[in-house]
Amino acid sequence: MKIDAGARFLIVGLGLLGGSYAQALKKQGYPVRAVTRSQSSIDYALTNGLIDSGSAYPDPDLLAWADVVVLAVYPHVLVEWVEVNQEHLRPGVLITDVTGVKGCVVDRVQALLRPDLEYVPAHPMAGRETLGVQNADCRIFQGANYIVTPTEKNTPEAVSACEDLGRILGFARISRLTPAEHDRMIGFVSQLTHCIAVALMTCNDIQRLESYTGDSFRDLTRIAKINDEMWSELFLDNRPALLEQMDAFTAQFTKMRDLLERRDVEGMRQMMRQSTARRKALEQPEP
Amino acid sequence: MKIDAGARFLIVGLGLLGGSYAQALKKQGYPVRAVTRSQSSIDYALTNGLIDSGSAYPDPDLLAWADVVVLAVYPHVLVEWVEVNQEHLRPGVLITDVTGVKGCVVDRVQALLRPDLEYVPAHPMAGRETLGVQNADCRIFQGANYIVTPTEKNTPEAVSACEDLGRILGFARISRLTPAEHDRMIGFVSQLTHCIAVALMTCNDIQRLESYTGDSFRDLTRIAKINDEMWSELFLDNRPALLEQMDAFTAQFTKMRDLLERRDVEGMRQMMRQSTARRKALEQPEP
Prior knowledge:
By secondary structure, the first copy, chain A, is an alpha/beta fold. Chain A is built from eleven helices and nine strands. In chain A, strand 2, helix 2 (39-47) and strand 3 form a beta-alpha-beta unit.
């Protein structure tokens, strides 16, 4: 199982990410078709050259055409979609996804999947504060991270093919984690940060706030503009890992608060020096 | 008291901010001199055309030359500097500063100030994660906010002159707050955000973190690279207001945590919708 030069891609769900996948794949010369619920999304994608053709219902002929299926839908839609539609896929098809939480879908999909299909979960860590195929832009993948989360049910060949897809899309770093490691990591670097931004943006109600903010406040609240439907679902799907991360953050934040209350300047400076060293390390290019 | 076309500026403290003030003022054609502790900072500023001349000690002739004195030094240095050096200033001089906390300096400076001098406190809300005059760049003022924090001891003319300085430097929005309002505001928009970034950056120790982060984590931790000497002093100088803001944030963050624990999706979505609306309002240009 590998991604051949003329591999035929079916994008399921033409939102911001599905549309950006389509755009990147078309630019690389792959045939791309799409299935999505809204005809206007299909029309937009056709008009703007993101896909070759598409359908607003899961047309069996379209499904039978695909070599690679990218599920770019909400987690709760994903499992059901595979269950209902897999019968139309050809043997040997590679299925992957873009879901931001893995534990809640990976086992369920792999448990019900036909033995002659393979699902390799992946998480493209790219996004925007805007929604829909109208905002699709494959430049969001440049410099970004792509995490593949295989299980023991996956073959090395399919995992490699899924990693190749990350490279084809233009991601800067491709890495592997188990679904559980992934969910813990994402609870930290993505979901916790969104919780913080929402809490920061709502903990004070100030008039003419724009006159008093500096870059730091604007940076920390950029993601406070949030798709509440999607993120509440992602939070709930990763509840234990996210709660654990929220508690770890609260413990550290409370430590800083208590150091300040006790006027422990050296303690505060030590935390600041540690955060400075870690943030610098984050900026360094890989060896 | 106003800033005349040829007003002579003395910058006290040639760091990132003092150097950026000097650069902006020189570009506007004002005579600019500086007093700072390090001769190499003077040399750098001279070589790069940020000042006309300078001294590594508070030369009385230099002090007697100035029409406007900008104190760009740490809070604990500021009060003592005025006490020791004000005798050399000419009557009618306008003194202003760049200090990020006001309560701890404003009353003390105004209490000891000669009656024929006037100190109008100001906070230019611009900065960088780098230090020193070598990183001075007056473009940091573009689009940024400038807050003047006068007291009843100030004359309307001097307050206007200080606001004019903000415009001369190129700030986008000039506003007025009392020192107490300022410190509460800064506890929220600036100090709290730095506490959050430091806690976030230090609450987990993960190898190869750069492979898993998205824009959100990088945005929220940009300011975790922090000047520990300066910020610990600023935190301590604003301790009651900052503790209050930290507790307000913790309460809201804990609310989100408890909603998640109780699986209260509608409660989470309500917080997200409120944060989205407020963040959008922050982006809107003033009427």
